[in-house]
Design goal:
Helix content: 25-40%
Order of helices and strands: EEHEEHEHHHHH
Radius of gyration: 15 Å
Number of strands: 5
Strand content: 15-25%
Largest sheet: 5 strands, mixed
Bound molecules: FE2/S2 (inorganic) cluster
Strand order of the largest sheet: 2-1-5-3-4
Number of helices: 7
Oligomer: single chain
Length: 153
């Protein structure tokens, strides 16, 4: 079976697949056991599956394995741990920025890429940066507060 090499959360991984178009999301969740990225729409429209590829936020449900091969992938698990959360994760906890939590992966990963590009964003820049990430619970006000808190950390 063909194999693909990826660097995932700092570790070299080799995965097998017959299909170079297999979504990266399936590889991360099903082959590598990483449950941070979520399956929401599967169409690149909600953001729940967002991961970082070479520090850019990408939607793993529409990123083919063949395109991800050779790149560095960071998932929610690669940002921090419960004992030592990443500043963005800590800010989401401090602001209680989740209700059901299903969007949280996409919000945190998208915000991580945003703060990487724009370390001190305005409220408007945070809104723009997160515009494509959908929260069905309406937690946006707290999420924006959390991103601003992280930018001050
Ligand atoms: S599950 Fe990937 S964008 Fe919705
Ligand atoms: S907290 Fe439920 S979808 Fe955002």
């Amino acid at each position: 079976m063909p194999t693909y090499k990826l660097r995932v959360n700092g570790a070299e991984k080799t995965v097998e697949s017959w299909d170079p178009n297999q979504p990266l999301l399936y590889v991360l969740r099903d082959s590598l056991g990483l449950q941070g990225p979520k399956f929401g729409c599967g169409l690149g429209q909600c953001g729940a599956c967002t991961v970082l590829m070479d520090r850019q936020a990408v939607r793993s449900c529409v990123t083919p394995l063949g395109k991800a091969a050779g790149h560095s992938i960071t998932t929610l698990e690669g940002l921090g741990t419960p004992e030592k959360p990443h500043p963005i994760q800590a800010a989401f906890i401090a602001e209680q920025a989740a209700q059901c939590g299903f969007c949280a992966n996409g919000m945190v990963m998208t915000a991580t890429a945003l703060l990487d590009r724009t370390p001190k964003p305005t409220v408007e820049q945070v809104k723009q940066g997160l515009a494509g990430a959908i929260c069905r619970c309406g937690t946006h006000t707290r999420i924006i507060r959390a991103v601003l808190r992280a930018s001050r950390a």
